[in-house]
Specification:
The strands form 2 sheets. Strands 3-2-1-4-5 form a 5-stranded mixed sheet, with helices on one face. A 3-stranded antiparallel sheet has the order 6-7-8, with no helix packed on it. It has one domain (about 5-140): 2-Layer Sandwich (Nucleotidyltransferase, domain 5), CATH 3.30.420.40. About 20% of the residues lie in helices and about 35% in strands. It is built from 2 helices and 8 strands; from the N terminus they run βββαβαββββ. α1 (about 40-50) runs parallel beside α2 (about 65-85). It has helices spanning about 40-50, 65-85; strands spanning about 5-10, 15-20, 30-35, 55-60, 90, 100-105, 110-115, 115-120. With about 150 residues, it is α/β, with parallel strands linked by helices.
Length: about 150
């Protein structure tokens, strides 16, 4: 029998991070990282994961970040959740980077102020790094998986 896992995908910028969490303990048991395009890496990795694991829950960072990567990730995971009949959850990217600014374009960065996401200009590049949580806490995620297409004014 395949090991049961919950999967978290962070594909807002390079590198893409994917974590596998033991569904009985919710502990991170394996992680994957890639600088490839999400449209190439995610389907290839999931093809291997589906052969080895039984996926119980899918979750992802729904934005803000790379518009195209968010879209590709959302469509792929939503389709997979429907075909597997498994829950699909989301959380914003700030959950995965200690609420630090997220790169938008040029010197513009996304920031979360209370419940609002705004864009701000920074002269000095803020240090921001996404990371997978050590534990999968399902209650921290939302059932509203719509992407956060927060686009800065151009």
């Amino acid at each position: 029998m395949s090991k049961k896992v919950n999967v978290v995908v962070i594909a807002l910028s390079a590198p893409i991070l994917i974590g596998l969490y033991d569904s009985s303990t919710n502990e991170l048991i394996s992680s994957f990282e890639s600088n490839e395009k999400s449209s190439e890496y995610i389907p290839t990795l999931f093809e291997k994961l589906l052969d080895e694991y039984s996926i119980e829950t899918l979750a992802y960072a729904n934005g803000p970040g790379s518009f195209m990567s968010i879209k590709v990730t959302y469509v792929f995971l939503k389709t997979l959740s429907i075909s597997l009949n498994k829950p699909f959850l989301a959380q914003d990217g700030f959950y995965f980077n200690d609420n630090t600014p997220i790169k938008a374009i040029g010197k513009l960065y996304f920031e979360k102020e209370e419940q609002n996401i705004v864009t701000k200009t920074f002269e000095q590049i803020p240090q921001s790094k996404f990371s997978l949580p050590k534990l999968f806490k399902e209650d921290d995620y939302l059932i509203d998986t719509e992407p956060l297409y927060v686009l800065p004014a151009v």
